[in-house]
Structures are given as C-alpha cells and as structure tokens.
Amino acid sequence: PPSAPSTKCYRCCTSHSSSSSEPFPLSDPCLSLFFSHCISAPVGPHFTECISREQETFRCWWSPGGFHNLSFPGALRVFYLKKDSPNSEWKECPEYSHLKRECFFDVNHTSVWIPYCMQLRGQNNVTYLDEDYCFTVENIVRPDPPVSLNWTLLNISPSGLSYDVMVNWEPPPSADVGAGWMRIEYEIQYTERNTTNWEALEMQPHTQQTIYGLQIGKEYEVHIRCRMQAFVKFGEFSDSVFIQVTEIPSQDSNFPFKLALIFGVLGILILILLIGISQQPRLMMILLPPVPAPKIKGIDPELLKKGKLDELNFILSGGGMGGLSTYAPDFYQDEPWVEFIEVDAEDADAAEKEENQGSDTQRLLDPPQPVSHHMNTGCANAVSFPDDDSGRASCYDPDLHDQDTLMLMATLLPGQPEDGEDSFDVVERAPVIERSERPLVQTQTGGPQTWLNTDFYAQVSNVMPSGGVVLSPGQQLRFQESTSAAEDEAQKKGKGSEDSEEKTQKELQFQLLVVDPEGSGYTTESNARQISTPPNTPMPGSGYQTIHPQPVETKPAATAENNQSPYILPDSPQSQFFAPVADYTVVQEVDSQHSLLLNPPPRQSPPPCLPHHPTKALAAMPVGYVTPDLLGNLSP
Amino acid sequence: MIIFNLMSIKQGQWAVLLWPYLLTASIPLDCRDEQGGLSHCPSISQEKLLDRVIQHAELIYRVSEESCSLFEEMFIPFPLQLQRNQAGYPCITKALPIPSSKSEIQQISDKWLLHSVLMLVQSWIEPLVYLQTTLNRYDGVPDMLLNKTKWVSEKLMSLEQGVVVLIKKMLDEEMMTTTYSEQGLFQDDGQPEMLEYVMRDYTLLSCFKKDAHKMEILLKLLKCRQNDMHSCA
C-alpha cells in the first residue's frame, strides 16, 4: 500500500531520534528511506509518542498527519492490546483527551513488563497504521525533572579566579525512588549565561554533585535532567538555576598593603644596617672582612708589584738574609703538590713502592732510554698507560719499565736514607729493558741513596717531549758516591739489557743532570744546552730540549769537579756540562727550535727561518720567574 | 574472573561499577553446604543478605541490558531494531502469576514476592546457559558479549542461591536449587546465522532483560516493605 513506506519511514525516523542521542549515520537505511519517501509522501495518522512519567501510568499522543479530514475530535480512535495472556483483545483507550489528542492510561490499566500495542482506527474500523506501535512501559519512562535545584559555594581557589560549587536537588516527586520502584540517575549541564554550549557532567545516582572550575565574575546557567538507570530515555530538563560569584574585594585590598608593609620594614632595616656599618668600622670588619692579599712569607708584598722583580729575585735566590734557605724548606713542605709527583706506573710491587714513596726524585729517575727512536715512540706505546693525575705527563710505558726520557736527575737535597734498601729499585727496572742499547746510567749508591730516599723539592729544569721532566737540584748536595758510582757504571755498562732480574742489585742507573752546586739556582743556558742535546733532531713542536738517555761514561774530571754535587755526569760528548743547576730557570728566549733558552746565546747563528723570532734578551741574568709580561716576549 | 575488554565507555562504566559489587556481592553466598543443600548463614544478617541480593539483581539487569544492546548492534538489521521500542515478540512466558504493577506488588505478601522472584530466576538459568552455547557459534561475535553473557549466567545462579537462602531465613522454607538438565527447552539447531535464529536469540536477550528488571524491582519493593511498611505506598 502506498502509505506503507511513509508510515514505516516516519516511525523509523522518530523512533531512532527518540531512542538514541546520536545523529543519523549516513549509511542508515532509515535515512535513505527517509529521503526517498518521507519528504515527498504525506504522512498518515500516527502516534507521536507514548510516555510514562513514573512507571505507573502512561500517555499516548497521536496526530492525524496529513489527513486533515481526520483532525476533528473523535475521528480517530485509539485501541490497545495488552499481551498479558494468549487470548487478549483489543480495547479502546480508557481515557481520552481529545483536545490534546492524548490517551491516558491510569494506574489500573498500566502494567509494567507487559507488552502493549497501540492502534489508530478510523470511524469505520479502518486501521491506519501498518505496524502496531508496541512497547513495554518501563521502556517508555521519561522521569520528571528533579526539583529544588540549589547551589552552595564550596571554595575559592587561592588565586581568586575560580571556585567550586556544590549543586543539590531533590528527585522528582512523582518518581518513587525511595521505595526502589525507580532507579534514577541524574545529569547536570551548565553553561555560561546566554551561550548554548552546555557542558554535561557525568551521570550519577546521587542527589548532589560538585561543579569544579567556575570562573569568578561569570554567570552560569545550570539545569538537570534524569533517567532510569540502564535505560535510554531522558526526562525533560528542569528549570535553570543561575550561579554567579563576584570578586571578594577584601582579599585584593589586603594583598598590596601587606606587600608594602613588608617592603617598608625591609628597607628600614637595610638603612639602619648601612648607617651602623658606616659609623662603626669594627662592625664593618665583622660584616665585610677584608680580602687577604697574596702573601709570601718573608717577602714584602710590595716587591710583588710590578717592576720590582729584581729585588724579589734576589730575595728568592737566597741572597737576602737567607730568605730562601729558610724559606725553601717551608716552601716545599707547604706545597702539597710536590708529594704528588708520581713518576710512572710501577709494577704492583708494594715493597718497591714503599721504598720509593719517600722519594719523588727516585720515581722521576728512570733507567734511561737508550734508543732514541724508542724514546720517541715511547709515548705512543704508552697509550694504555693509565694516566691518573699523578703529575707526570710523560708517556711511561709500564711494560718496558723504562722511562725513555730521562731524568737527569739530580737529587737535590740531602735527606735521610730511609733504609738500607735499594732506593733505586725504580731504576732497577732498567735491566728489564730489552732494548739493545741501554744507556748506562751511573748508579749511585750510598750517598745518592740518601737523597734519593727523601722527598725534596726539585726544580723542573726541562720537560721532555715525551713528558718526562728534568729536575735540577736546588741546593748543594753531598757528592760522595760519585766515584763509586763511576765504578759501578763501568761495570754496569752494557749490562742492563740482560739484567732483568737483578732488581736487588743496588744499581741505580740514572741519567743525571749534573748539578751545579754553586747554588745559584739557575743553570746557564750553555749548561742547559749541553744537558739537553738530543741525538736526533728535536721533534717538531716539541718545544723542549730533550735529554736523551745517553751512554754515561765516567768522567773523573766531571766527578772531580762535581765534588759538591752528588751527581754523575752522563758521559757523552754531547752532554758534558758543568752547568750549575738551579732551582728555577728563567726562560729567556725561545729559539728557533722552540726550545726554551735559559740563557740566551751570544747570537752566533741567528735562526734564519724565524725572522720574527723574539730577540729580546733580558739584560739581566735571568734570575727569577717568568712573569707574564716576559712570557709574552717569549712566545714566537 | 572474567577479563573484560574495556574499549567502549559503556564497558568502562560497567567495569567500574562492577568491581565493588563483585567484591561485596560475591561473598555472602557461601551458605551452601556440600550437598548443595542449604544452611543458614548465621554470620550475615538478613538485611545485608537482602541488600546483596538486590545488588546482584541490579548488576544483572545492567549487564543484560548491555548485552542486549551489543547483540542488537552486531546482529540485528536496523529495521528490526525498532523492536527496542516495541515488544511485539513473545517472550518465554510461563503461567507465572507475577504481579505487573506497583499496586499489585504492594498488595501481595512477602512470601509471594520471594517465590515470584525465585520462579523468575529459576526459569532463566537454563535459557542463559543455552544462549552461551549458541552465541559461541556466531560469526564475529565479540568477546565482550560472550563474557557478559557468561557473567550474567553465573551471577544468576548466585542470585538463585541467595534467594533460596533468603527464603529459608525469612519464610523458613526449604527450596531446591535448580539442577541442570542437558535437555533444555531449546533444541540446538544448526545454522545459527539464519535470521530466524538470530531473532530468537535476540528475543531471548530482550526478554531476559525485562525479567531482570522485574526481579530487581520486586526485591527492592520487598526491601522497602521490610524497612518500613508505610512509606512504601
């Protein structure tokens, strides 16, 4: 029949809209049906809706649709079928309200959980609906809105910008919630006044709820609706309630006042303090103690000022009333760094270490490195060497136990021999070296032992490219064993390579720098040059003159001359030197090879390659430290 | 317990609601003794027992409603979904003289209320078990649906036990709990995908939902009556 699609589509659309809050899905068959039929075809008489408010009664409304000839009262009649038994019958509406086109079912005619079917019939029993409008009462319940909606202010945020509100209400009076006849849950919605984007809070069955985060000054509109729990249809919204909280002026006025008070008090306190300090110098001392100026004992700080270098150097060299001599012991005792000079990575021989612990010089002394190439590559080999912060920048190769760069060391100060043990164990490792050519280092026994075992303050005269340091003695020392050492040396010559086990031998092979016992504290440049004559060309950029282990020969002459110094001269044609070894050496120049010239040469062969080489030579004998302004002159 | 897939909001709500009830509601029904008979639960009061029974019923209704919606979405073509608003399908009705309006309910006795509830519960135990088996054979049935129906079926059995105990306590009568029979009311036909069978299952779920609601309200009215006779008018 032609009306079939229209009624079907109509009910489809209405039922879908009433049952769910979602919009039509586009692929909905109802939608297609709607567009194809509902728009064009006239709609016949139909029921608009049946609603129960409290699950005890219900009402149904109908509409004649497009059939205006049926719009007069009584043209359409409502029949219902209550399927509570197999042989039930259609009955007419118990109570009409023709004005509203409503059929009302009272308590006696309402049964829950029993299907009802409704029909619209015309005068002559013509049925206008293709499908009966069937339902069960609990599914058409739309509860009345809650009543007595009210709100109370819970709190205001510390910033004073937002607040929370507790809303409470009563369940609809018609719904028998107390007896459990209906289980209701509520939904609150709120929005800013005069806007329509309602925000819904979560549904819950209690009769109060908190709205968080409302803003001060704005006016909000709140309303509520409810539905049966686990059902779909909502009731109507209640009347709106308006919430507004304006700013609290007291808080605002308090805040700046407090702030001003605090600042004022602070300012006054500061003022009093300043006045007190200015009046009372003692107070000033307590509060702002003076910063200590740099001081050196025994030296007038005035001398440290610029331009008074000479006096300072004089004093430091001990020319004063023994300023340095008394000074020096204190000096090195006060300097903790002296003790921390470690020479190399010794083997894990504790005993050996014990012996050596007292003598940094000993550590610095090492069996000389015969081969230059070995020395040069020594650094590379020492990659694996753990370089802890021991102050040695050298590339000691622990495996080889040799310190390629040798420390021509001269022990500087007499000290107590620690024990009769071999203090030169460090150097004993020299025998371990398997290099073919071992520099014969004159060993010192006895006397050197003494000074080797003691800690002393050694001046670094030079630094090897491999990192070893050349020490020079600071003071005159006994040189008793030079002769004996010379003897030993003759024996030890060439012996080192095979003597790897003889650690107990009290042979210490050193390559020593002859110390000038003059006590001048400085070595002349010529001496230094003699000291450090590299057998091969210096490595570019080395910056230092290297003292290579060289075969040491006895030099009776040297020894004789060095009666005062306990050192053995390394006997090499190149390394004859009698230079006084000083505590400090002033670097006068840097020559073309980037060596630090301790005493500038008399300009025999000016280096051609470096025309810009600084030729400033200090007029005075270099006696002192390299001051920064001098250093500037030295850099090439 | 059953692991539920918390994908949709509905599920989330349900799960959130479920757990506290599970904790409380699963406890009291340890009053059965070894032979399946009944024993008093001296440790729990009657009010508490009734409360827990009511909680059971509420949850059962909620879960059954969700199961029905799920099933409807998955398997029922939309035009036939109009039956949500209509009840033009026959439910499994036995000649149960169960009151169907508030006034009727208020007029009947406690004894009759309890017996009505028990009858309802017992009439649904077997069909739900059957529903489990048929649902498993659907193509693409979501696990959630299976879990829910399984849960409902189990909870219904617990509810039955609770009501039996309640009857024993309140009415001092001994009732028997349902025993399973392999021979159910329904035959296990093949071809579950045919519309006819789909509609049958859908009808089953809808009718059970309705009856679950009924159980809940009956129990609640009973409770109200227990507390205060006069305010439950």
Description:
The complex is a heterodimer of chains A (636) and B (233). By secondary structure, chain A is of the alpha+beta class. Among the domains of chain A are: 46-140, Sandwich (Immunoglobulin-like); 147-247, Immunoglobulins (Immunoglobulin-like, Sandwich). Chain A is 24% helix and 16% strand. Chain A is built from 16 helices and 19 strands. Chain A has a 4-stranded antiparallel beta sheet. A 4-stranded antiparallel beta sheet of chain A has the order 4-3-7-8, with no helix packed on it. In chain A, a hairpin with a 4-residue loop joins strand 5 (96-97) and strand 6. The relative contact order of chain A is 0.07. The model of chain A is unreliable at 1-10, 15-26, 322-329, 346-354, 369-394, 396-453, 475-578 and 604-622 (pLDDT under 50). Chain B is mainly alpha-helical and 233 residues long. Chain B has a domain at 44-176 and 214-227: Growth Hormone, Chain: A (Up-down Bundle), CATH 1.20.1250.10. Chain B contains 6 helices and no strands. Chain B has helices at 9-25, 46-75, 102-107, 110-136, 143-170, 195-227. The longest helix of chain B is centred in the last third of the chain and has 33 residues, at 195-227. Chain B is elongated, with a radius of gyration of 18 Å. In chain B, 38% of the residues are buried. Mean pLDDT of chain B is 76; it is low at 1-8, 23-30 and 33-37. Chain A binds chain B through residues 8, 11-12, 15, 18-19, 28-30, 55-56, 83-84, 107-108, 110-117, 131-136, 138-140, 176, 178-181, 183, 229-231, and chain B through 54, 58, 61-62, 65, 77-79, 82-88, 90, 100-103, 210-211, 213-214, 216-217, 220-221, 223-224, 231-232.
